[in-house]
Predict the 3D structure of the following.
Amino acid sequence: MNNDCLYCNKNQTQKDLMIEICDLKVSTVFLFREQTYHGRCIVAYKDHATELYELEGEALLAYMEDVNKVAKVMKELFNPVKVNYGAYSDKLPHLHFHLIPKYPDGPDFGGTFTMNPQKVYLSDEEYKEMVISIKSKLK
Ligand SMILES: [Zn+2]
């Protein structure tokens, strides 16, 4: 637990950026509000780890299984050609992966995704539908 961390605090800044979908084995899944990459999610580790190498054995395996599970659900629901995985956290050191569905005719295909393009936002109803469909596949 780190008091300055939005993933630990679940503060308003976090709520402005993402919507909580559900907990998995060792992580929490969020829908990223900015939806330039249709279906984009975040998988955040349950504890305040900074680096992937801080996890070992069962914890590491469980986290990678959670990430994998979300990627599979993305494929099933949104049918991207590729899922990109981003774990940067330079300024927000709480272990989390951005899962970015990429589409051949979509933005940045063949390149690196933009962290927050601030272009595509959905209606509350559309977010709700996505959260429900993702959640139902993850359970
Ligand atoms: Zn944290």
